[in-house]
Amino acid sequence: IRWDKNNDYSDFLSYSMGLLVKPERSLRVGLSLGRGFRPPTFNELYWPGAGNPELKPQESLQANTYVDYTIKNKAFLRISGFWRNVKNSISWINFSPRNIDKLTVQGVEINPRFHPVDPLTFSVTLVAKRAKEERLDQDTSNHWYVDGVHLKERRAPFTPEIKFSGSLEWDIRENTTCALSSIYTGERIAYFFDFVDSEYKIKHIAPITLHNICLTQKIGGSFFISLRVDNIFDTKNTSNFGYTLDDKDYPAPGRVISLGVRLKG
Predict the structure, then answer these.
(1) pTM of the predicted model, to two decimals?
(2) Which of 42, 82, 134, 209 could be cross-linked to 102 through a Cys-Cys bond (beta carbons 3.0 to 4.6 Å apart)?
(3) Contacts of 245 (CB under 8 A, 6+ apart)
């Protein structure tokens, strides 16, 4: 439990609580609930030429529930559902931070892990998420005008609705491990203002799948050396949106090869 007494904003009580139930040894059921508070950052308030001193703090309420099931040491499965509601969410619009009346995020995450035989372990993470921003003010000048349509609700920018990752770990021998992984990131969108047409337009970053590999060798009892290759096939992709509707955005690195060492005490 946390109490915020602030000279600039109203007082706020934050809390988080959880409940864990084990009906049997291999089964767990969990539930959590929390309320949060975030005042605007210094940059959001005072960034030169863009800061907004009139910003209100974000207030959030979030809940999560999950079920874990274990089959001896051969398999593990977690299914979880989450929901988050944010009042006065802070979002950068037209190069300036503004409060969005309401942000709602809800989704499901699935995490199975299998260990069929001693040398192999296979794991997956799948996240399906729906995030939407809402304008609750009835004044239509405060609603969005996107691609020629007035909206009071829109998909939240920058957040993929689907993200999937899978990995296969192979213990080649006692001190040598090879890990293969693939990561799929779904389509991302953002809204940019078209000053010619005086409306927001949607910009897209296409879905992308990247593949990685890491080879780790243990030497002695505490020294590890690893060789890692990210983006094995040198796939061209975009890391993030740029600043305008027509720019080329920010490119992500191509193939990256790295050598690492680690000493475990």
Answers:
(1) 0.84
(2) 134
(3) 192, 193, 194, 201, 203
